[in-house]
Amino acid sequence: MTNDSFAVSVTKLTKKFGDKVVLDDVTFEVKEGEVFGIIGPNGAGKTTTLRIIAGIIRKYEGEVRVYGLKPVDARKVGYISYMPEDAFPYDNLTGYENLEFYAKIYSKGDKAKAREYVERGITIANLGDRIYDRASSYSRGMKRRLLIARTLMVKPKVAILDEPTTALDVESAIKVRETIRGMRGESTIVISSHNMLEVEYLCDSIVLINHGRVVAVGRPKEIVELTKTNNLEEAFIKLTVKENDKGLIA
Ligand SMILES: Nc1ncnc2c1ncn2[C@@H]1O[C@H](COP(=O)(O)OP(=O)(O)OP(=O)(O)O)[C@@H](O)[C@H]1O
């Protein structure tokens, strides 16, 4: 059973690669307008979950809906904008041209809309005049901000950002977080992250996945309280290491 009133609903999702079960009976919902975090240790199944929600992986068991549509259909009608973990801009194009390129795809021939997207992308990226430089000259943090701007400027119903701050220095990560936080309420944003402080700061709700299974879902504060810990990092350790998958559903 699926509840279509959620931005994203994932119900009894199981994904196997060959004989290997990567996601096992995963259920959670994302409310409209929230920043939702998928967290878990390396190999837990975060990227696989995001790729399924983004409509890229199409074979799975269970039910996944994005505003009531199958992800692949939601993607076709432009509800979804996705930034993969290993995304990169076109190095030979300027930041501006990168935004233009993506805006053209999403605006489907509507030039005014394309311009609006690019203007919005410039604001979100906040790169100043460097937006007119080739992306090859950008630092890693600048490239990431460009990619996030590219993902968010099209006002998707659901923006999916896979590890948006991984491998960034402190200052760049802060800027990226501020960018995402600034978009709260405009799009529903689903991110994956390893950084518990970041998740506590950014996310309204989270799902914690370990070895493909949900071990906790709810507001970060609720999970901290239920695990009788001081912060999400301690809760994470308790749930993924010390409790060794006993599970807790908030
Ligand atoms: N195309 C694939 N074929 C086979 N196995 C895969 C494939 N994609 C992912 N896996 C496996 O599925 C499991 C979950 O991978 P996934 O990338 O979803 O984890 P993750 O939580 O995002 O990890 P990380 O934090 O390291 O990015 C891993 O064991 C991975 O090796």
Automatic annotation (TrEMBL):
Checking SMART domains in the record gives: AAA
Tell me which residues make up the ABC transporter domain: 8-236
Protein name per the record: ABC transporter
Which domain of life does the UniProt lineage start with?
Answer: Archaea
Extract the CDD domains matched here.
ABC_DR_subfamily_A
Entries under InterPro entries matching the protein: AAA+_ATPase, ABC_transporter-like_ATP-bd, P-loop_NTPase
Q: Which organism is it from?
A: Candidatus Aramenus sulfurataquae
- UniProt cross-references to PANTHER family, sorted A to Z: ABC TRANSPORTER, ATP-BINDING PROTEIN
Q: Which PROSITE patterns match?
A: ABC_TRANSPORTER_2
* Pfam families linked: ABC_tran (PF00005)
Spell out the molecular function terms from Gene Ontology.
Answer: ATP binding; ATP hydrolysis activity
Keywords, A to Z, come to: ATP-binding, Nucleotide-binding
